[in-house]
Amino acid sequence: FYFKDNDMFNDFASKITPPDGQSRSKLLLGLLCNQKARRLEWADGTKVDYTKNTLSLDFDCTRNLTVVSEPAKNDWYEVSSNRTDYTYTVICATLPIAIEGDSCWDYDRMED
Question: What domain of life does the UniProt record list for this protein's source (predicted)?
């Protein structure tokens, strides 16, 4: 996760319209609590070596704490993972779905 990635996510998330009556969305980062180490790490198990501004991730995450990004303010915040009073935006990157077989799917081919 690098500055370019953070900027890309912020740009994407800032275009999401929040539901009526809700504040701007927070971006729920792919951080999980490693119960053994009691520290946050990326969902793929790698160490978090990038943070935004002066936020320290050196806290006991088993106390129900996590980190969110607020794209509108270009900042990261430590919050309770039990909070439900604001909207989260979850963005998942996946590989394109490979289409196998006939490119016409269920449509019959036209006669030549």
Answer: Eukaryota
